[in-house]
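Hi R.,

As promised, here are both runs. First protein below:
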Amino acid sequence: MLKKCMDDPLLIIPIEDIGIKESLSNKEIPVQILDRQVRRLRTKEVASVKVLWRNQFVEEATWEAEEDMKKRYPHLFETREILDQSTNSLLSTL
């Protein structure tokens, strides 16, 4: 059952008194590349990387296109390329 509500004008706060920023956006920043996969379609191959974002858990990591991530965040791939080169050189010496 509904009850009658008596409003109190003293409890109303004007919006001008509240400091609200106009741009309340949260910019996600990638932290690490967790995995890489290549999906083969009929005519092409699509490479994807699993990206761990700041303020998220590993379970919430998302798959993104590798090409787009390399364009936007090349620093994430520099350490991976160095590791790949060192692994290849180690394998070639064996």
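And here is the second one, sequence first, then its structure tokens:
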Amino acid sequence: MKKAMLDGQSKLLLFVNGLFVLASALSGTFINVFLWKSRQDFTMIGWFTISQQIALVLTFWLAGKWVKEHNKMNVIRVGILLSAVFYLLVLWLDQQAVSYIWPLGLLLGTSLGLFWISFNVVYFEVTSRDNRDLFNGWVGLIGSLVGIVGPWASGLVISLSKANQGYRIIFMISMVVYGVGVIVSFFLKKRKTEGTYYWIEPFRQLKNTASPWRHAAPALAFQGIREGVFSFLVNLLVYIATTQEVKLGQFYLYTSLVALVSYHFVGKWYKPAHRYYGSLVGALLLSLLTLPLLWAVNYSTLLIVGIGSALFMPFYILPMISSVFDLMGTSEEMVSKRVELVVLREICLSAGRIAGVLIFILVLSIHDSSKTMTWLMVILGFSPVLSWLFLRKLVRI
């Protein structure tokens, strides 16, 4: 069997991704904490998350035409630049940023949407079914390595600085890293354009009862439910439990170190034939690992959840990513519609994320208590199992 390999363009794309993720890890880990310190309101943070997801999914759909019919590399660059602009505005607004949750969230979501739609399309073009798991393993590996250094360094700088001076330093460093990412992106080859963008193709796929996307769509949506809530709530709870940014940085250092090892071994071991049972094991363990929160929500139990998630997430997420992207290569017609299908993938994920956060906001508006929040995390934490139930037909070989 031919050994899976990555070519120069794949490695360069990984480098650009690493820079973007590094800048996001340095500042993105603490942006919700920065807002929380100005106003202790879970609902406010929830709406900030929803505004990002609304902008992200709309950007995917609208920018799809640009990516397919024009220079997709410019889309990556604009996305990186807008991320830098976001942190520049947060620096300028300082504590008044909480008064502009929606415009800031929409801007951040737009920047993320522009970067990730182009990245995902280029990723599909520079990989194949044979090396897609390897590429995804490297993405996870780099993300984990960045997660070790970025949040820990940020937390240390913030804790050693007076008032919000540490946040200003970290946000400025992120802007510099984003700038380097733009420069490096010019070494990626310009990708050729192909065909016309079909605006309604994502919805046509969902309407078609014979389309495999009818299974992929709910699987992605249930994946998004967990992501939407856990993406902001876990780090906030760690900060609330410790009241120290340096502790939050240490939390990400420990969990990312575990994820680094896990992504390394799982990325090397995973083959398409392993996806069925590997994703099942990952989904079950991710879900069960939320149960310790029922005993107590403190730094120790949150660390158990974080380390456990870091250890088992690759088993679940790598088949999710690879199998869905494999659907884009099942025929020449699907390959020609890869941009529209990348948009469809993001619509499904964002729908799940928005649904998860809306459930979170609605439940807390009815009964706002720490016990309610804990049970909500546990219940929503079981969504990967539901995701696997829809995914299993796509990963069975």
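A quick note on the second one: The first helix runs from residue 8 to 38. Let me know what you think.

Best,
J.
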